[in-house]
Specification:
heterodimer, A: mainly beta, 6-stranded antiparallel beta sheet, B: alpha+beta, Thiol Ester Dehydrase, Chain A, 7-stranded antiparallel beta sheet, 7 strands
Chain lengths: 123, 147
């Protein structure tokens, strides 16, 4: 995993029906990505949250996954490691072709940061 | 709108984008022509999104496209007198398709087509190639807060 225990760590996992779960995550402020995004102004890169969704999906299904497509990913609020040290990531997957369709949301008590619909291939 | 075509980098990339290592993912803005530009990145092992197999994770390709658009926006802002490049954020990724993951040593050549800007939001289209092979494409909304 590229980002688990580097950009985020899993605090808890609550599995739902089928292939779905809610992950409570800590955003790790010491991650080196903030040296460059941006110097003196740490902002969570939206693409790191996209990768975090994939890594939680891998934890959920126990298979290696790659995004083959993202139909839509809306980034609805800026996240920073100080303003949102903990987030909740909801993910649900449905088998489709040689992979899964995925729907995911990242939010905390105050706002929604990301809503994603995409497609994983097994790798 | 300034139009120019060159085989050499137009300006130091640090002047055009605010991102820095380890998530600086454009080396050069090569060409600006109207509402289109071309950027280049040679994939190195010190990039944040390189995985253990020496290839780039998929979101790294999205970030490269976003920073290519950022370099274009930075070029235009500086042409209009700005001192610092604007800090923009991805508002939406739409219809991203990845055909092949880049590997260390690949040279990514990315063409950005920029649409109109409404209320600080610009729609862009990006196509990434390695040599003659298209490896990824996406549409994106880039948001630049006015603060």
């Amino acid at each position: 995993m590229l980002l688990e225990n580097r950009y985020f760590s899993v605090l808890s996992e609550k599995r739902g029906e089928g292939l779905s779960a809610v992950y409570r995550l800590a955003i790790l402020p010491e991650c080196n990505v903030y040296e460059g995004h941006f110097p003196g102004n740490p902002v969570c890169p939206g693409v790191c949250n996209i990768e975090t969704i994939k890594e939680c999906a891998i934890l959920l299904c126990g298979e290696q996954l790659r995004y083959s497509s993202i139909k839509q990913c809306r980034m609805t609020a800026l996240a920073t490691p100080s303003a949102c040290p903990e987030i909740e990531l909801q993910v649900s997957m449905t088998p489709c072709g040689k992979g899964y369709t995925v729907q995911a949301t990242i939010a905390d008590e105050n706002r929604t940061y990301m809503v994603l619909k995409g497609q994983f291939d097994k790798s | 709108m300034t139009c120019m075509t060159t085989s050499r980098a137009i300006s130091s990339i640090e002047k055009l984008i605010p991102q820095r290592s380890p998530i600086m993912m454009v080396d050069e803005l090569l060409r600006v022509d109207g509402y289109e530009c071309t950027c280049r990145l040679t994939v190195r092992d010190d990039i944040f999104f390189i995985e253990e197999d020496g290839r780039m994770a998929e979101p790294g390709v999205i970030e490269h496209i976003a920073q290519s658009a950022s370099a274009f926006a930075g070029y235009m802002a500086i042409a209009e007198g700005a001192v610092e490049p604007p800090v923009g954020y991805i508002g939406e990724v739409r219809n991203f398709r990845l055909f092949n993951r880049p590997r260390i040593g690949d040279v990514l050549t990315t063409v950005i087509s920029m649409g109109p800007t409404v209320a600080g939001v610009t729609i862009i289209n990006g196509v990434v190639s390695v040599g003659d092979e298209k490896i990824a494409e996406t549409q994106m909304k880039i948001f630049v807060p006015e603060d």
